[in-house]
Amino acid sequence: MKTLLLQADERSVKYAGELLQRGEIVAIPTETVYGIAADCTDGDAVAKIFAAKGRPQDNPLIVHIASRDMLEGVVSSFPPQAEKLAAAFWPGPLTMILPRGDKLCDATCAGLSSVGVRFPAHPVAQAVIRAAGVPLSAPSANLSGKPSPTNARDVFADMQGRLPLVLDGGDCKAGVESTVVSLLGDIPVILRPGYITREQMQDVLGTEVLVSQAITHAVKAGEKVLSPGMKYRHYAPDAMLTLVKGDFASFREYVRGMPEKNVFCLCFDGEEKDLPVPAISYGKKGDGAAQAHALFSALRELDRRGAKTVYVRCPEETGISLAVYNRLLRAAAFRVIDLGGDGKNR
Ligand code: TXA
Ligand code: MG
Question: Tell me: the pLDDT tens digits for 25-43?
């Protein structure tokens, strides 16, 4: 299949809408990461997404809407907590898990009785949903297991020949995927940290929001998880990553002692020149938003530069940095070394 890469404009968005109405799949920009979209009611179209990504069949997709009216048939209830979160954070990078509605195809929900729903803020994502005239099921636009793409070039690298159209809407602002929060129980539970933080949601709801254990701990074989995506190795470049906790001086000495070839570091802005091996920055120390924005393209850059072993400076575990920490833990298959010190990673 020939894959077109088109600048997102009125004409190409209209064409994307036509393809989606015909049961095709299209890669689109959102404010978090690029997604691969299909009509959420069309099982055959959604099956094409799973095939293009090589995605396990038991991992459900998020449904994207472009107006509150579009919730009809997507969810079967919209409780008060959802109303409050939607008022504060939609359109935006927040996915809510709610009881599923009757118009979704089974493949979208992967057999679950719930669905993840989100109203993206990106104008191109909204325009494509409107052009298709139906909510769109869309996972991140990477091959399963790879880092999510935050620009059209990275989408094209993974998806060339696998779908008919990639719409280029520039670099994604957030750079990490949406926060996924389950509203199925009495207390909201974050299943995947993202750009909208626990602290922000607690402020809006006036209640506690829990964070699932699986965000910072490896899921054991056979263990039941709230979110199927947590079972899988994720976001991983070809290189072997290790997260290193500790201050900068200890980190530098640790890396200096490494005998392997093609060792790289993933570090914070300005540290590159003081490291004994090639280093790529993933943003400013202590700045979760900057790190989120840079992380996935930095992981892909490591592959392009032939890195085999990568030592990574560890981000904080609060605010947006919790999302960055979670993605890095998974990219590193939970390999973490703690060099001690005061834990401030200075
Ligand atoms: O920012 C985003 O959310 C991007 C853009 C394209 O919108 N999408 C995205 O989708 O990251 P995906 O498929 O790569 O990740 C969706 C995550 C998976 O971990 C999946 O298991 C979880 O959400 N999920 C989806 N539906 C769920 C459900 N009903 N219950 C629990 N987890 C669910
Ligand atoms: Mg994904």
Answer: 999 999 999 999 999 999 9
